[in-house]
Design goal:
438 residues; alpha/beta; six-stranded parallel sheet; three-stranded antiparallel sheet; binds coenzyme A
């Protein structure tokens, strides 16, 4: 907490891990909001600053219901408070300065240079609050691309994920999982918590930077491993090898291969002709090879030297999986799951988002949560994936634009009424403009 702040409210008995931590949330779109949402779930008080009138651009993007905050916005901004504030208005800047003095962490993911143009240099912030941690997401770290604006798929491409995703005879592919945005938000949240911990010793804030390219590369590190292995021979667990094709100079796209002694592939299950998700991921883990042979009706492969060991099987992976698929096609993916798990064969059903939305067990653990919203009504969201025994996560709906403007000026910053009136009259909170339009 900053040095001049009022005393924090007493925590409930168990409390939450980040009770008392105050976040000035200057984030927008996805990467930054993912980070601050996580911190809010752990109990931090997250105050989101939004441009008057429009707010976070995602409020109005991919709308499914007219004039209602989009699911894009609501699903990334739970448990936060929203203040409308024009930070380029001198009165708005006054509020911003007070919030900087009040908060522990400023989180932002503006384009490079935006914070400086607002006058919020590190020196300026540090003078107002030497304990302030300033956490940023940028597309690239220092270097030739540092000034570029970046979105999810740009980061997936620049971080090495796209070149290694997809089938070898097809173009590079981006993944549906938002490893550039949400992945970097996760990295940043860890950086913030580490900086808060270090501040306990140093008493000082610091800058925390996560570049989306770096975050993606961190998640794609096994591919940089393979790049170096390639200098010493073919990547034998890649289907390319068993298909007798040469490797080039860079790690190829490996389709659905998985690594090492545990080769895997996606196989058709009963109903695949009409159901695009009637598939299962099947792993031929070495210790359960004999169980696999028995299941698929190839008991001879248990002792046949051409199949007995993982190395002997590597050149025949295509044919082996084709044989296993003959068996999986006679069962539904859930039947395969049940039969295989009973004998410890690791398999994973390809679950559609519809199946996930309807999954009762995910509802029970709070991984999928139904939330009520005053203008949208009920919707589903993903709850905190990190479960802690002493810091329960309750998912509260996202704030309406400027819902907490008054509360923050009055109860958080404790501004006198006269000052609040002046701020509002200046248009810094957007209300003067709206009143004029009424
Ligand atoms: N009051 C007044 N002005 C405000 C404001 C407020 N409350 N909040 C934002 N602004 C202004 C900023 O000052 C800036 O204006 P300026 O360029 O005149 O200085 C502008 O709004 C926002 O800037 P920017 O971040 O460039 O938004 P953008 O929509 O053009 O670009 C991104 C969006 C995501 C491409 C860009 O922010 C970016 O590259 N971010 C870093 C990487 C990232 O997080 N990408 C993933 C997004 S999911």
């Amino acid at each position: 907490m900053s040095k001049n702040e009022p005393k924090k409210a007493a925590a409930t008995e168990a409390g939450k891990a980040l009770d008392g931590v105050r976040i000035l949330d200057f984030t927008h779109v996805q990467s930054g909001p993912t980070c601050t949402q996580l911190l809010a779930w752990f109990g931090a008080d997250v105050i989101k600053i939004e441009k008057p009138g429009t707010g976070d651009i995602t409020r109005g993007q991919l709308r499914d219901i007219p004039d209602v905050d989009s699911l894009y916005f609501t699903m990334l901004n739970h448990n936060k408070r929203s203040i409308e504030l024009d930070t380029k208005n001198p009165k708005g800047k006054e509020v911003l300065d007070a919030l900087i003095a009040y908060c522990d962490v400023l989180v932002e993911n503006f384009a490079p240079g935006v914070l400086d143009r607002m006058g919020l240099t590190w020196d300026y912030i540090h003078k107002l609050n030497p304990r302030m941690i300033v956490a940023s997401v940028k597309g690239f770290g220092p270097g030739p691309y540092e000034d570029c604006k970046v979105y999810e798929n740009v980061a997936q491409c620049a971080g090495g994920s796209a070149s290694t995703t997809g089938f070898r005879d097809g173009p590079p592919l981006v993944t549906g999982a938002q490893i550039g945005d949400s992945g970097t938000g996760l990295h940043l949240a860890l950086g913030i918590v580490a900086a808060l911990y270090q501040r306990n010793t140093t008493g000082k804030g610091q800058k925390v930077l996560c570049a989306m390219q770096d975050g993606v590369l961190n998640l794609a590190r096994v591919k940089l491993r393979d790049q170096q292995r390639l200098a010493h021979g073919p990547l034998k667990e890649y289907r390319q090898h068993s298909d007798g094709l040469p490797f080039g100079k860079a790690v190829p796209r490996s389709g659905n291969d998985s690594g090492g002694g545990q080769p895997g592939w996606i196989l058709k299950c009963k109903g695949w002709e009409t159901d695009p998700d009637a598939y299962i991921y099947f792993i031929t883990q070495a210790p359960v090879w004999e169980a696999i042979c028995d299941l698929i009706g190839e008991p001879g492969w248990k002792t046949d030297p051409g199949y007995k060991t993982p190395n002997a099987r590597l050149p025949k992976l295509g044919a082996i999986f084709a044989r296993i698929e003959q068996w999986t096609m006679t069962k539904t993916k859930f039947e395969v799951m049940e039969i295989c798990n009973a004998v410890d064969i690791p398999v994973g059903p390809i679950l559609s988002m519809k199946e996930i939305a309807e999954d009762e067990s995910l509802r029970k653990t709070g991984t999928v949560v139904e939330v009520d919203h005053p203008t949208r009504g009920k919707y589903l969201t993903v709850g905190n994936p990190i479960k802690m025994s002493d810091s329960a996560s309750e998912v509260k709906r996202s704030p309406l634009l400027g819902e907490h403007t008054d509360e923050i000026l009055r109860d958080v910053l404790k501004f006198p009424e006269k000052q609040i009136e002046e701020i509002k009259a200046s248009g810094a909170t957007g209300q003067a403009k709206r009143m004029a339009a009424e």
